[in-house]
Write a structure and sequence with these properties.
By secondary structure, this protein is mostly helical. The chain contains 9 helices and no strands. It has helices at 12-24, 28-40, 49-60, 66-78, 87-96, 100-109, 114-124, 128-140, 148-157. α5 (87-96) runs antiparallel to α6 (100-109), α6 (100-109) packs antiparallel against α7 (114-124) and α7 runs antiparallel to α8 (128-140).
Length: 158
């Protein structure tokens, strides 16, 4: 409510306080929102990638919120306060939860035929970017034999 001003005056500080209370009660979505606030540096909230990652880790625990797992992967991939090497692990976890963007990011990180497989999963999860990239892989034979029919099908899905 306070974060977006639904039914009340928008107040990011109150939103963060409310999310903290909910997080302490085990609400994973609250941890996710706190992670987002600190990653983006919401109005009045300083950007803090280390804090953001901590909250995303809480939200992602035990197969929790796949989007938090993806956000951790992005932070690792781009080095926002963490190492790059863990990105693949987080994308893989989120992809197992059928998160299309995670499977797509795995494809980006893969340099061999595995990329095609991951893009196919991403497309199957309804991710348009993954479908487009899968089309590129089949059109150009990147780790798979050239197959213009499959490429066309994936472009159409995108």
């Amino acid at each position: 409510m306070y974060r977006n001003g639904f039914g009340v005056e928008k107040d990011i500080q109150k939103a963060v306080e409310s999310f903290e209370i909910a997080k302490d009660q085990g609400e994973l979505l609250a941890s996710f929102h706190l992670g987002t606030a600190y990653e983006m540096g919401d109005t009045g909230i300083p950007k803090d990638p280390i804090k953001a990652a901590k909250y995303y880790e809480q939200a992602a625990q035990d197969g929790g919120i796949a989007a938090a797992t993806v956000n951790l992967g992005v932070m690792y991939e781009h080095g926002n306060g963490y190492e790059h090497t863990k990105a693949f692990e987080f994308y893989e976890r989120a992809a197992r939860q059928k998160h299309g963007a995670a499977a797509c990011r795995l494809g980006f990180l893969s340099s061999k035929g595995l990329g095609a497989e991951l893009y196919q999963k991403s497309a199957a999860f309804g991710d348009a970017v993954g479908a487009f990239n899968c089309g590129l892989v089949f059109e150009n034979g990147q780790g798979v034999p050239v197959n213009l029919f499959k490429a066309r099908d994936y472009y159409t899905m995108a």
